[in-house]
């Protein structure tokens, strides 16, 4: 019998967990690119509302989730913790495999956990419209959903190639009332500049970020919203791990290995930080936590830990993080949500301190894992999520060799029902491994903004 742990609405966590006060060493400050001094809250006010700027540096371990946010979370939360029994049987492993199913939200991923919170704090700060960028459309659709429920307007700059190639995520955003523009547009200076040089520019996430930020800065009632990387985003995602902890408590077991895929690091952090708290407190010294990244954008396993821009254009403040260099352009892979040059500063610090591990996989082996999961458990995973599944399968197969009955848990960050074109390519044997060019990485690392002492 397949097992599943469900929590009632009353058991929905009422506070998020902030890992900042529990870190093994203090998080390096965000630096202003010109003055090279730590940024002040005032520097960020044109872009983010005050409550989110406060959360970014909050010293408090627990932060109340507002009633209005809980009310919307309750549309799909708490999410089930499910046992992948059929996958275990297929692999013939003595290990137990559990997953937290974040694919059940209306947009189909973990992303609305922060989109809803961000929309709320902007709403109470008097903001009328949010801007953002989106690549494949996961983040854009999460923000479109959240702003729709709070009665805010939403403008999404969608990378032009994706806009043309992935129309269904755009339709989803428009269904929730967002306006979606193929970026580069002629609505911003950043976009017009790119179009002047190349009218047929396919766009990039970097250009789309520049457009969304410029739009927000130039309009009094408008702010910008980011879907990963920053501390407040990771904070909001901890609702995942806090639920999972309760669910494991009800089962009377504690996981040995936690696994999540990492793009900017938010679903991984949200799932694992509440457990990492036990490791940092010395209660679970042997807990293993593994971040899984694509070989095409291996910021943890092949990047350096230093200050870098968050965006490709070099407009944002500098974050101390694991990075491949902001000018590094990862090869095109179907897991668009993992195609990022950097990593959340919080995840980077924990990796640097040896608290978490990381592995990188090329995409063919990832799709092989996706198919195994779809054909045993039924759910079709997002290509991003399939990275975590690959690592889970490998860990479970190691347990088969050693005979260890480990408890492996992973975050099922989203479903792949909008990614069927990628599955089609894989099934038809047209998919290739996309591994980056080491000389490009070398060049990108030479262009880092400044090296610290
Ligand atoms: C966006 C996305 C990711 C990667 O983003 P993180 O911030 O690293 O979580 C992973 N899985 C899915 C399904 C996504 O949509």
Write a compact overview of the structure shown.
This protein is an alpha/beta fold and 453 residues long. 42% of the residues lie in helices and 16% in strands. It has helices spanning 41-44, 50-56, 67-73, 85-91, 112-124, 138-150, 160-165, 167-175, 189-197, 205-217, 231-251, 266-280, 299-302, 345-352, 363-377, 383-402, 420-427, 438-446, and strands spanning 4-5, 15-17, 62-64, 81-83, 96-101, 129-134, 153-159, 179-183, 222-224, 257-261, 288-294, 304-309, 318-323, 357-361, 407-412.
Oligomer: single chain
Characterize the biggest β-sheet: 7 strands, mixed
What structural class do you assign from the helix and strand content?
Answer: alpha/beta
Instruction: Report the average pLDDT across residues.
Output: 95
List all distinct small molecules, including ions and cofactors, that are bound in this structure: pyridoxal-5'-phosphate
CATH class designation of the largest domain: Alpha Beta
Radius of gyration: 21 Å
Strands of the largest sheet, in order across it?
A: 1-4-5-15-10-11-14
In DSSP terms (H or I, runs of 4 or more residues), the helix count works out at 18
Number of domains: 2
Strand coverage percent:
15-25%
- Based on the structure given, which CATH architecture of the largest domain is correct? 3-Layer(aba) Sandwich
SS elements, strand count: 15
Gap between N and C termini, in Å? 57 Å
Which regions have little confidence, pLDDT < 50, spanning 5+ residues?
A: none
The helix content, as a percent range, equals: 40-55%
